[in-house]
Amino acid sequence: MCDIFSAFKAVHVKRPEGLSPASVSFLPGCLPSFNGICMPETGDVVNLSMGASRNEFDNISPDLKSDDPKVVAAYMKENFRAFRLTEEGYLDWAMTQWTEQRWNRTGQVHCNRYSSLECGIVMMGDSVHATSPSIGMGMNTALRDAQKFVELLDEFDDDLGRALPRYTIDRVPEGNALTHIALNTYCFDAGVQARSMLAQIARSGLHYLFPSLVDPDPNALIGQPQYTLSDAYDLAMGQGVLARHREVNQRIRQEFFERETGTVRTRREERGRSSGLVRGAMVVAPVAACAVAMFMKKQ
Predict the structure, then answer these.
(1) pLDDT tens digits along 96-139
(2) β-pairing, 2-3 with 107-108?
(3) 217 and 245 assigned to the same domain
(4) Do 66 and 128 fall into the same domain?
(5) How many structural domains compose the chain?
(6) Between the CA of residue 218 and those of 70, 210, 291, what are the distances in Å?
(7) Are 106 and 54 in contact (CB under 8 A)?
(8) Residue 120, domain CATH
(9) Radius of gyration of the chain (CA)
(10) How far is residue 152's CA from residue 220's CA, in Å, rounded to a whole number?
């Protein structure tokens, strides 16, 4: 188990024109230091979740942390560029939803077994792959867990001795793909995330022009019925983007933990500068000593 390393809020707004009523929309950089996701719901409404990683939370605008709905609404109107709302829409967003909820943080669960034949236990949903809402696939994956288990019971005539081990084999890759993609699809380093976004746009364009030569962006596979989450995970690892984000994110999480707990009291950059000065002094000092010795000998 671990923390998703983000704080977020979720609001419901009337679906804007131009936003698909049938697909998930990723919103990287929807606000300064924020990433988001927009998921369609019934009644022509969308669920918009937005959050910032914990290392960036202190840097977000105080307006977003304000209890005054008018302040929040004005900030959203000026800075939120993913889509536009009416004046009433911004105020409803801020007054009845944003300012009346706390900043949410959820845990994340990774498991390598989803069943126990000895105990007669089967697990699914958040009990084995709880995660952040960053890719909007938590509930879908939980429903697919249940569907797959029913299918296996039918296939093996309710024989748990065969159904439970097979259930683990089939669903563990999907659950772990969900949690790892959700945690690392966005990078906690803003610079790395910006470069990844540009690469994603370029890849999507090239794939559109040359589909047989250029693979799609892995995020484009998420939610499509012909692909699984493990397909998206495998493609992201093959392209290097997930491994790159994971390496950076793990470093940032560790450094944040070290500073928060007082284990390390200086930033890595500061330690790097002081170490650089020490290494420079270690090079200069012997050279200076030799020069002085040669000068004294000559005298």
Answers:
(1) 899 989 998 888 898 999 999 888 899 999 999 999 888 889 99
(2) antiparallel
(3) yes
(4) no
(5) 3
(6) 39, 16, 60
(7) no
(8) 3.50.50.60
(9) 25
(10) 29
